Amino acid sequence: MTAEHAVLPAEGTRSHTWDAAGPPVIELDGVTKTYRTGTLEVDALRGVSLTIDEGEYVAVMGPSGSGKSTLMHILGCLDVPSGGVYRLAGEDVSTLDETRLAEIRNQRIGFVFQQFNLLPTLTAWRNVELPLVYAGVERHERRERALAALDRVGLSDRVEHRPGELSGGQQQRVATARALVTDPALILADEPTGNLDSSSAADVLGLIDELHRAGRTIVLITHEPDVAAAAQRTERIRDGRIVPVTDPGTGGHR
């Protein structure tokens, strides 16, 4: 089943959205990230400033080692900046305790990773329900919502299959269903097509586009220009910095 035939999501579906008239969903101001191992210091991010509004679809493109995955981890509240300010829907992330950050990760943000991160011993629907388990949702509702999410991505006939019984494209669709099962307002996709053939990659990008058209804010991390072209806007990152549009010969904002 191709992406254009999937139902994503039904009109009127309740999601954990932010106020469209409020502050930007993502606002980075001079964000830095330094990793330290003994006396060695590595500056992964060097003063990144970036704004993404509600409902935007933005690709962040850069080569290996550019800092794009570090940026993704900070955007998803999986890591914290060493310096600068990160505001998520107007809230300074540095002021939030771990309980609040966990709540945001679980309910407001959906993650899609290159490696799928599916548990091999669990069926597709059991993998999809995991965010709802952590959220304390009742068992009956968890199953109902997991099956609905799998139906949205065209896998209603694979709900009892384990990851090893699915193709790479199907596994990524399971991971996408898991990302949207909590109806998040923000989807962060880190190289979601990196392990897929061209047909499966097009299918997954179609699903992400459907999520965007349904009102989700999308941030897509990639090193591939063809993948970045699916977004409304492309930001380029190199050596831990967002490349300005005026920087000759390097590309920049699209």
Q: Enumerate how many helices there are, as a single number.
A: 7
Name the beta content range: 15-25%
CATH topology of the domain at 3-8 and 54-72 and 102-242: Rossmann fold
- Average pLDDT for all residues: 86
Q: What is the ordering of alpha helices and beta strands?
A: EEEHEEHEHHHEHEHEE
Structure commentary:
The chain has 254 residues and is α/β, with parallel strands linked by helices. The protein has helices spanning 68-75, 98-107, 124-134, 139-152, 168-180, 198-213, 225-228, and strands at residues 26-37, 40-52, 57-61, 83-88, 91-92, 109-113, 186-190, 217-222, 233-238, 241-242. The strands form two sheets. Strands 6-7-8-3-9-10 form a six-stranded mixed β-sheet, with helices on both faces. It has a four-stranded antiparallel β-sheet with strand order 2-1-4-5, covered by helices on one side. A hairpin with a 2-residue loop joins strand 9 and strand 10. Helix 4 packs across helix 5 (168-180) and helix 5 (168-180) packs parallel to helix 6 (198-213).
Question: What's the SSE blueprint?
Answer:
Blueprint: E1 26-37, E2 40-52, E3 57-61, H1 68-75, E4 83-88, E5 91-92, H2 98-107, E6 109-113, H3 124-134, H4 139-152, H5 168-180, E7 186-190, H6 198-213, E8 217-222, H7 225-228, E9 233-238, E10 241-242
Parallel strand pairs: 3-8, 3-9, 6-7, 7-8
Antiparallel strand pairs: 1-2, 1-4, 4-5, 9-10
Keywords for this entry:
254 residues; alpha/beta; Rossmann fold; four-stranded antiparallel sheet; 7 helices; 24% strand; globular; disordered N terminus
